[in-house]
Fold each of these.
Amino acid sequence: MTIATDPPKASFRLSMLINATRYRSYTFQAIALLALIVVFSILGNNLAQNLAAAGLNISYEFLGDPAGYDINQQPIPYNSQDTHMRASVVGALNTLIVAFLACLTATVFGVIAGVLRLSNNWIISKLMSLYVEIFRNIPVLIWLIIIFTVTANVFAPIAEFRLPRDGSDPERTLIFGVMAFTNQGVFIPKLVFGDNGALVIYTFLASILGVFGLRRYARNKLFNEGKTVPVLLPALAILIVPTVLMYFVLGRPVGVDLPEMGRFRFEGGLQLRTSFIALWFALSIYTGAFIAENVRAGILAISKGQSEAAAALGLRSGRIMNLVILPQALRVIIPPLISQYLNITKNSSLAIAVGYMDLTGTLGGITLNQTGRAIESVLLLMLFYLTFSLTISALMNVYNNSIKLKER
Amino acid sequence: MSDTHAQTVAFVRHTEIPPAPPPAGQAGAVKWMRENLFSGPFNTVMTLLGVYIIYSLIVGIFPWIANSVWGVDNIRACREVTQGNGGACFAVIEQRWQQLLFGFEYPSTEYWRPTTAFVLLFVAVAPVLFLNLPRALLIFTGIYPFLAYWLIWGGIILIPITAALGFIVGYFAFKRLEHNSFAIGLFGAVAAAVLTWWLTDFLIQPATRGVLFGTDPDGMLRGLLYQPEVASRNMGGFMLNMILGTVCVSLSLPIGIALALGRQSHMPIIKWICVIFIEFIRGVPLITLLFVANVVLAYFFPPETTIDLILRVIIMITMFSSAYIAEVIRGGLAALPRGQYEAADSLGLDYAQATRLIIMPQALKISIPGSVNVAVGLFKDTTLVSVISMFDLVGMIRGPILSSTDWAGVYWELWAFAAALFFVVCYGISQYSQWLERKLQTGHR
């Protein structure tokens, strides 16, 4: 019997850097790293030379200077004497506001259209296909401008709401006395918070948590003991009763400020500007078409056998949807849905085309043009969107892992 | 037995009843309508709602088209003709279609050149899109970029020819060196191409042009060899969208493949370079990248060089789309069963061979629909260049046309025209992708 010996150990030779698989990867990586360093140093060198030639330097001190421009939608107090930094924060908040609202409405549009597109009703399913195809195949920028033009041209001018001097009725009045669609935007009632107003809101938020708790309790009860707990009515009660109680106990700290026609313009209420309305609606209806496709694909991905099996077990159609179809369909729908939300956030930067003052309009627009700090502004702008996207992606990965099919 | 029957049953039919037609409510159009339109109260309401929506769409659009006005010079003349009957003023498209398609500075005597390039584009992409066409047509696909560049930008034909020459020499160098290893072939090809360009540089110098054409501007071969140059800043209209779309998509495919392979690689440094690049690009909106192209990128070029805005935009959009293409192709790579990689390894193929012969053909096939989606999205996104004041189709409409005294206020017609152009192209591409998907699906089973 021969004794197996180790193959002779090859000593390292220089040619192995190219020929031997185990060393070759180091060669390639070294080359890549070297190339990267060379490229970056050339770019950095060019940058330094160009900046020196233009007498500039990289500095973020401009963020502390007074901005000197107005922003027409201010979620936090701001005036033109405030700093560029504060202007950027206002812009960032405006981005988040329009993105958040557009995500909500786009989901509504998308789910409705996606479900209806699968309907047996021929006319409705064809109409929904038409909606999806038309909105998916035309650039969102064109939709944004069309909708902006419509809102600015089709709605009545504010002048028509004015009381004529002769005391006759104005041409137009507020809808239900609370809302007005004008060519300068939509006027809606505004909530005004008194001293303890925040407490009411907190109570309401707590009730929402309570509803989730109730659902979870009912679910556990159903799964563990097989008993069904009524959910709908108690949930409504939890949602409404504590908030209303709090509202009256604290002495009505939350009021409503209705828009009213003054002499020249509306006073009171909340003005949603045309640019905001157009951006919000355009993003929602455009992305809604994409979400509709995701929803449709998600529902179609669940095989018919699943619902048949559930029916054979004796579940009613509502239960089939809630317990069998939706949990599986959502696993397919949610990841692309989240990336649509990210698209909405990124597309909200189109605001600059209609003059909505989001972060791209303030930091990337006026601040950049006024200070001439192109590199700094654009870098900061990218950083904001990047942070936002990466945060959402990270959360999505956590979610995806939590709902992943657990196989063997 | 028949006797007992005879006593218990009064009548026995001996012949079959002829089949009767179904009741009127259970056949034909009525049945279809009952099943598909009025199958319940909810469905009936939805149907009526749908009919109402279609009715109001037709009522809204029909007079607009039926009473449309053609052949007048400005919006006031148009308003006189329509007299408020809601007719569209399509005269604006008749008057300004050249600007809408080519931008307002492209010389009108040269419109045939981009038009030819556009028509030839279909010939060039046909063999890529339809695999049953003769493969020899791919040669024209290879020639097309250089031809299209010469047609659209003009100038002396030697520039695209020397550029093509570099690629041809590089290709032969690759074929020659490939048997050593893929990497050596690749580096050899790049070196050969660069050498060719360096050697033929004198051909494209202005001095050569003087030798070729003399001082006589109407030389015999002038039309064939030289077309008047059109500067990049004069490109505009839908042509600009088409240029950006086609150039960036075709450039981003190879870059995207490289990035996807890099991201799958086992070499940590290369992997992380690709990951950071892809995630960075995908995390920021295209507009910020266009801002970079517009105001930042110039700082990174050597001093005293001037790079066209259109070239800078092409660089940034290509980076943008290659990151997205890379993710699509990564999906394709991930969808391949591990057995394919292992089978390639067990055949003794090295990485380059396995990738080229086994992995990529399958991964690309899987990722075609996704890539087409990216291409459609990118083509739509080319309208964003209007934000950095380039005059593409959207920029032309918003800028020169709607702000001219003749046509201020003709929104609907112009936007409908723009929307229709984009719809035709994007819908066409997505229909192609669905057709291909169906075809590939049957190929698998």
Amino acid sequence: MPGQSVGAVKAQRARFDQPLQLRSGGILPAFDLIYETYGTLNAAGSNAILVCHALSGHHHVAGHYADQPDNIGWWDNIIGPGRPLDTDRFFIVGVNNLGGCHGSTGPSSANPATGKPWGADFPIIAVSDWVEAQARLADRLGIDSWAAVIGGSLGGMQALRWAISYPERIRHAIVIASAPKLSAQNIAFNDVARQAILTDPDFHGGHYYEHGTRPVRGLRLARMLGHITYLSDDQMGEKFGRELRNGSFSFDFDVEFEIESYLRYQGDKFAGHFDANTYLLMTKALDYFDPARLDDGDLNATMARTRAGFLVVSFSTDWRFTPARSREIVAALLANGRDVSYAEIGLNFGHDSFLMEDAHYHGVVAAYLGNIRT
Amino acid sequence: MTHTLGRADFDVIAGWVEPGHRVLDLGCGDGALLRRLIETRGVQGWGVEIEDANVLAAIRNGINVIQSNLENGLGDFADDAFDHVVLSRTLQTVRHTEDILREMLRVGREAVVSFPNFAYWKNLRSVLDGRMPVSEDLPYQWYDSPNVRFFTLLDFEALCEQMGLAIRERSVLDEHGNPVENTDNREVNFLGSLAVYRLTRPR
């Protein structure tokens, strides 16, 4: 791949003691955010890019940890010297969102009122709450306005929300494989995933930490389901087809087809480290996201609130967040005469395409960022 | 669908737009026309383009570009969103000719259309000599041409008449980009290599 990795990185922690009023009506009295930065903030504080993560992401976006050389950031292929998010030019910030399970305050953190993990008592978090928390981090880092906020999927929703909530604090929004709100089908998939977790006997109403257990079976199913929706039918066919692990039918319910093996492996891997309460929260944030509610469902009116330039990117094989959903965002921006470019990338990896390295896709992002003034 | 060749029609189009106008360029290629209109005429511009390489080039040029297939209409654009909608050297590549003209005048107050005139005398001579024309304004061989509609200046005017579109201005250029000045329409059809029209809605 062109360019280089940012190399060894370190996570940092910021503590915020001012209460955060949440969209759901709840209040977080105080919170921690864990984050990473790559590159150098310029004197004017004008070259900062915020990378927002999707459902299962976190603050470790690029590079590796000195003591864990194999623990490479989830979007390492796009960040570094000479890469589209060029750290020779930009100061990149990755943050684990509130409610996460990678170090920021979330359901597995201690509830100050009880001293025990929040569990199911952790308030429901909305995308707009993440933006509020990220804005406080920007204040802390001395960033008045982001040169760009970028994200794929749920991350793209945060970029969109930034442009709506803080038009004066974001100069460009790069919204990839995203949507202005979920479809009924999207919500349906999320609910099946939640049901898998909520009905796991080890869930204990969300207070499984106290029982020394985790709803691994439910989380595993949720991830398997999600994974199916992130891939394209074609790609799954090409990669796995109907290949059998042992060459012939065994007429039982063990793993037989390669696709089964793959999904179970992905499910096990994910369930081994991710927190089920965080998964529930993230899917709810997705379901509730609908910024046009600010304007009685009129997305054109909502996008009139924005001032940022936009790059909107979709992928032809993404059936979870189809190109048509991205075009809704584009149309609402055009209706307001906003600066917007839109690229529909022909990549075969379904929704997951946004994480892939592709010369044209990365070329588009690099070209757009290349024209951003810092 | 690119503006890589002659730019004679760009001069004409630049003369028809005003500072602050909103311009939509259909089949914008690498964004050269919009770049020029933005820099020299102070317009706000957006392009529509289907080819990946052109979308990338337009973004690199700092042009707003929407990747889309013109054959699918202009559904992402609201009524009256633009002052001018430009279709430069592209109409002959579009199958749904009437649809695109109607769409242009739905989303824009004025349509600017330029196209190669197949009745240009050199083209006619070429056909008489037994070969399909290849020229500055028709730079393709018959087997690799993106063109799917073959029509003349008079054909186009007949279609406008039929659709009730008003021709506000017309500029006809020879192969060197010089204006063809003649009062006889049949002569103009014979002498013009490239035609540029400024259209408005049926009144």
